[in-house]
């Protein structure tokens, strides 16, 4: 596995690598057998589904004060862990840090690879900054002590969950609500190989904006009407405005999928119980 190879090649002198597997088969376990003699690597199989559950399992299984996270369709640079560690050492109020995400080589006429391109470092310190938090979970690190205090990741967010995205933005916003800081760094970037064709791109847009709408509904449910301008900004800039711009230029309108998915997610979020103390969705067990 290229992901594992790239992480184990990191220059940080002291780290552990935990692979959390939620698959129903043994393909991942078999793929990791060549690394069996490397004591830094640990394999964990869990029965629950959803990225939020996987991230929380990773928190439980790891021991470090800073946890760096990437996806299985990415590779990381050799200095990835050292650069992340330096950010948390230099900025004691940072709870969440994002690095860049570069698209691997692909045919841009056939589709795209989601990326996150940064042209400098940025510090977010208030909820007013939340509308600018765009980092991807493919390149994120968290400070354990602060993430534990805010209740860990939301199990109902992320691929495989009821609201199948936005686990990354949610943890950043909840950190800002707790008066911690969020940091973007352009010093490092992971390489992303998750190619999507254009049909898959529309499906991804629906998935993302469904979860974004649900995530922002938490503000309303938790009595934070003062923060509703943040989802309004998100909706207008990234869903409504592209549609209006296309209509003004007499082009085929885009953004309808985003608009309907955002609304669907927001309504779904309003219908889902939320723990006000942690601002996490509460899963209702079916009888």
Comma- or semicolon-separated keywords:
287 residues, alpha+beta, Spore Coat Polysaccharide Biosynthesis Protein SpsA, Chain A, 18% strand
Structure description:
With 287 residues, this protein is α+β, with helices and mostly antiparallel strands. It has 2 domains: 2-196, Spore Coat Polysaccharide Biosynthesis Protein SpsA, Chain A, CATH 3.90.550; 199-281, no CATH class. It contains 9 helices and 12 strands. The longest helix is centred in the last third of the chain and has 24 residues, at 198-221. 37% of the residues are buried.
How can the largest sheet be summarized? 6 strands, mixed
Overall number of domains: 2
- Poorly predicted sequence stretches spanning 5 or more consecutive residues: none
| Count of β-strands | 12
Structural class: alpha+beta
Radius of gyration from CA coordinates: 19 Å
Q: What do we call the CATH topology of the largest domain? A: Spore Coat Polysaccharide Biosynthesis Protein SpsA, Chain A
Sum up the overall morphology in one term. Answer: globular
Span from first to last CA?
A: 40 Å
Strand content: 15-25%
Q: What share of the residues lie within helices?
A: 25-40%
Q: Please give the CATH class of the largest domain.
A: Alpha Beta
CATH architecture tag of the largest domain? Alpha-Beta Complex
Count every helix, treating DSSP H or I runs of 4 or more residues as helices. 9
CATH superfamily of the largest domain: Spore Coat Polysaccharide Biosynthesis Protein SpsA, Chain A
Mean pLDDT: 95
Task: Write down the secondary-structure element order.
Answer: HEHEHEEHEEEEHHEEHHHEE
């Amino acid at each position: 596995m290229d992901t594992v190879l790239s992480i184990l090649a990191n220059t940080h002198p002291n780290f552990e690598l935990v692979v959390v597997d939620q698959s129903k088969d043994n393909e991942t376990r078999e793929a990791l057998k060549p690394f069996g003699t490397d004591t830094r690597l640990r394999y964990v199989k869990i029965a629950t589904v959803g990225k939020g559950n996987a991230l929380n399992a990773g928190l439980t299984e790891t021991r470090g004060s800073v946890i760096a996270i990437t996806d299985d369709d990415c590779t990381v640079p050799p200095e990835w862990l050292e650069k992340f560690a330096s950010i948390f050492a230099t900025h004691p109020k940072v709870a969440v840090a994002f690095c860049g995400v570069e698209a691997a080589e692909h045919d841009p006429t056939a589709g795209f690879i989601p990326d996150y391109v940064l042209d400098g470092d940025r510090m977010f310190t208030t909820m007013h900054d939340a509308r600018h938090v765009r980092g991807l979970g493919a390149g994120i690190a968290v400070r354990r002590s602060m993430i534990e205090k805010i209740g860990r990741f939301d199990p109902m967010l992320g691929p495989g969950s009821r609201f199948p995205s936005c686990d990354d933005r949610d943890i950043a916003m909840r950190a800002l609500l707790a008066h911690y800081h969020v940091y973007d760094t352009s010093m490092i970037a992971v390489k992303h190989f998750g190619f999507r064709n254009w049909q898959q791109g529309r499906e991804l847009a629906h998935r993302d904006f469904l979860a974004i709408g649900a995530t922002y509904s938490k503000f309303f449910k938790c009595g934070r009407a003062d923060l509703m301008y943040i989802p309004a900004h998100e909706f207008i800039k990234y869903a409504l405005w592209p549609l209006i711009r296309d209509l003004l230029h007499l082009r085929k309108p885009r953004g309808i999928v985003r608009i309907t998915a955002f609304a669907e997610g927001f309504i779904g979020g309003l219908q889902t119980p939320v723990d006000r103390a942690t601002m996490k969705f509460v899963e209702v067990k079916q009888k």
